[in-house]
Amino acid sequence: MNEIVSIDRRKFIIGAATVGSGLAIGFSLPEGGPTVVRANDGSPELNAWVVIRPDDTVVIRMARSEMGQGTITGLAQLVVEELECDWSKITTEYPTPGQSLARNRVWKDFSTGGSRGIRTSHEYVRQGGAAARMMLVQAAANQWSVPVSECTVAKGVITHTSSGRTLRFGQVAEAAAKLEQPKEIPLKDPKDWKVIGQPIKRIDTLEKVTGKQVYGTDLKLPGMLNAAIRESPVFGGKVKSFDASKATGMKGVRKVVQVGDSAVAVVADTWWQAKSALDEVKIDFDDGGNAKVSSASIAKMLEEGLSADQAFVGNDNGDAKAALAGAAKKVEATYFYPFQNHAPMEPMNATARYTADKCEVWVPTQDGEASLAAVISASGLTAAQCDVHKINLGGGFGRRGAFQDYVVQAVQIAKQMPGTPIKLIWTREEDMRQGRFHPIMSCKLVGGFDANNNLTALHMRLSGQSILAAVRPAIVQQNKGMDPLVFQGLARGGEHGFGYTIPNLLIDHAMRNTHVPPGFWRGVNINQNCIFIECFMDELAQSVGQDELEFRRKLLDKHPKNLAVLNAVAEKIGWGKPPPQGRFYGLAHMKAFAAYVAAAAEISVSADGKKVKVHRIIAATDPIYAVNPAQIDRQVAGSFVYGLSALFQQACTVKDGCIVEENFDTYDSMRIAQMPKVESIIMPSGGSDPWGGVGEPTICVAAPAVINAYFKATGKRLRSVPLKDLDVSMV
Amino acid sequence: MAKLTINGRVHDLDVDPQTPLLWAIREQAGLTGTKYGCGIAQCGACTVHMGGEAVRSCTVFVEDAVGKEITTIEGLAQGATLTKVQQAWVDHDVPQCGYCQAGMIMAVSALLKAKPKPTDADIDEAITNICRCGTFQQVREAIHAAAKA
Questions:
Q1: Most exposed residue of A128, A199, A581, A672, measured as fewest CB within 10 angstroms of its CB?
Q2: What are the Cα distances from residue B38, in Å, to A28, A110, A242, A263?
Q3: Average pLDDT over residues B69-78
Q4: Bridge partners of A680?
Q5: What is the structure's pLDDT at A231?
């Protein structure tokens, strides 16, 4: 660890999981035993996940990032469950991705997206806790010269049952660290869990209510300067030239630099000076070939895709086209979903310090390893010369994982001022212009019935943007040009499997990519897919005069977990009974990120149909296992704020190749007055199914449930997002 | 140069008087609990108290804050003793990412000063901060709890 980091730690370390970098790794070689790895305060490491200090403090290290979703609290619960330590004595720490790399990726995946924070790491972090406990108990048993089987352990204290002797974790940690790692690490039966499944409060709240949590934008390093940046607003455009003559004379300004081939930044003593000077830099951009693209031209391209001959098939059975041709009755509808920006409250930022032989970056990131890769590539240094210090995020929602453009920029600026730490913060306007946008998508659905009003065929034709074609082209290549992620919630089985059984089914995608860079936006492709399928299910049911719930039930009989969440919300809202006067109900469900979710919305609508009040949403979620119901409850309620803001208020439109909406005045977000009462039902089904996620799945069910309720209220079917463009607003 | 009174302390700051108060608080006074979210008084992440009233400090010039008592999130707790709003936030486990919460707490603290027992309608009218994580359900619970405390 270099000087900057240690100064930074002294200044800023403020409790759990703050500015990571406390893991200077030292090694000592005790005689005859394995290597003891030590934290930089000298405390022994039991394994990568667990360090125990002499005062019994348990330091739990975790590779996943905290961005509000509660993951570090949940992960700590998983470790503590098996470790049997005292919850009040834990603290958490982020290892750096460089440290992980140097230790053969001992912390495994850093990526915190796809609702994977807990569900894909629960097994190895629990094993980390269990292995540490086994070594601690063994060390105590060795000290007493008794068999391990005579010892019990609870709350960080090991007891020799017959003699009543006790040892605390802190007393045996040193000896335990010298033992061999156990080879067999049995985990508890879920029925014996005491910590997992409890609605424990988050471990990182105090700093957040006192203003002490250090976010990326708050970082201070000795000698640090601040940067503001403007990139070509037309995606793909380049800097032709820029005139900095006015800016360079302004107070505090140190340097005006070109960043890559597409941006200009001002470096100044303070960020406000940098931003003010940047406003005075005249930049001449070469817009490239994209300056003529508009929302209208994109809409035309998508419309063509709806009936194009070529499309990638994501799910099919039977012969949908033939069955539709011979159907006694056909129903058809076309839906639309726009580009949207993540707009986390904290704008993109990164702080970089570059010298000829070292480059370090401090960044709020959903994927420390992706950030590290960006630092290595932008600095031109080796992996061993680079590292990334993770900072808790002021929101991520998918913007800060796969995309590290701001990290690259910070390094590119820092390279032009070697030795000086540079903190780059985007303006909100830059953040809105340079998003990695929710993909734009249209969908034409055609359903066919036989003479007895049985649904015999469904064709869903998606037309629009692929995220993977832009972000993971290798996956698209492996799939012969198809983006399998487009079919989230509509896929042939798997964690995003389609729940309905329809004799003749065709779900296909005409890939229509634009110059607007797409990204993984909380929920990713389930947002539009759930609106398309769950609104159309209501349309189909209504076209044959059937109850919307009963209609779904028949088609879900092969998927009991889908059915269970749908039944749970229907029962709780009182589906089938008349709603209170002036209130209307709507339903939706989906399987997403291996979880099963459903929503029932209760709304009222003004007489002119223009104002919608969403009174409450009943939400059911089956994540298979529920680590912390209180935090799941918050994720569910929060996901509806994100999802309903998107439904009613948000679209990024394109004019002259640029994004039009530049701030919250034109890209609104729900306020407390609009917040429905959310009642969540958490119904983990357990068993051997893969664990489901909770950060994203429910986001998709609010919108179709509300649209379906709106039809009940008005008889008008809303098929285009955002609803503000249809003159329908949320009150 | 400007003389600003923040959390009861007078700061002599080397700052252009046309600088937004937000950035003087963050960069000159070094109090980073107050956050930048939008710069156009839409989101409320930068809410502080000026003369006892909640203001969005991104659109207040330093020159207009001179001579007024400014309170930021760092000025609420007395040592380890939280205000009842902060305590309600802890008790109700309100923050998610937390970035908007300083502004939210400042807005709520001003509301409770003006209306010690706010109704839901009062809350809806007065609290217009954006929270992208969507903590509103817990925010409302915590406001009522703080009002009762």
A1: A581
A2: 50, 30, 26, 21
A3: 98
A4: A619
A5: 98
CATH 3.40.1190.20 assigned to domain A218-288+348-425? The reply is: no
User: In CATH, what number does A3-210 get?
Assistant: 3.30.365.10
What domains sit in chain B, N to C, each tagged with a CATH number?
2-75 (3.10.20.30), 84-148 (1.10.150.120)
CA-to-CA separations, B80 to A212, A648, B54, B74, B86, in angstroms, rounded? 13, 42, 24, 12, 11
Q: How many whole angstroms from its chain centre is CA A157?
A: 37
Q: What is the DSSP string of chain B?
A: -EEEEETTEEEEE---TTSBHHHIIIIIS--TTS--S-SSSSS-TTEEEETTEEEEGGGSBHHHHTTSEEE-GGGTSBTTB--HHHHHHHHTT--SS-TTHHHHHHHHHHHHHH-SS--HHHHHHH-----SS--HHHHHHHHHHHHH-
Q: CB contact, 8 Å: B128 with chain A?
A: yes
Query: What residues in A contact B39, CB-CB < 8 Å?
Result: 427-428, 663
The band of A33, judged by pLDDT with boundaries at 50, 70 and 90, is: low
Interface residue B105 vs chain A (CB under 8 A)? yes
Tokens 């209170």 correspond to A580
Nearest alpha-carbon partner for A262 in A459, A409, A452: A409
Say what angle helices A629-649 and B136-148 make with each other, to 10 degrees.
120
What are the chain B neighbours of A343 within 8 Å (beta carbons)? Answer: 132
Q: Cis peptide leading into A722, omega within 30 of 0?
A: yes
Whose structure tokens read 């969403």? A614
Asked if B79 is an interface residue toward chain A (Cβ–Cβ < 8 A), one would say no
Assembly ipTM: 0.98
Q: Where are the domain boundaries for CATH 3.30.365.10 in chain A?
A: 3-210, 218-288+348-425, 295-340+437-730
Average pLDDT of B56-61? 98
The answer to whether residue A9 scores a pLDDT higher than 60 is: no
pLDDT at B1: 85
Cβ pairs A/B, distance under 8 A:
179
Is residue A719 within 8 A of residue A658, CB to CB? The reply is no
CA angle at A439 for the pair A436 and A444, rounded to the nearest 5°:
175
CATH of domain A295-340+437-730: 3.30.365.10
User: Is residue A340 scored above 50 in pLDDT?
Assistant: yes
CA dihedral A267, A271, A273, A279 (to 10 degrees): 80
Residues A665-679: pLDDT tens digits? 999 999 999 999 999
The angle at the Cα of A670, spanning A666 to A673, to the nearest 5 degrees, equals: 125
Percent over 90 (pLDDT), chain A: 95
Q: Which of B95, B129, B130 sits opposite A209 (nearest CB)?
A: B95
Angle at the Cα of A214 (from A196 to A637), degrees rounded to 5? 45
A25 pLDDT more than 80 = no
**Mean pLDDT of chain B, nearest integer:** 98
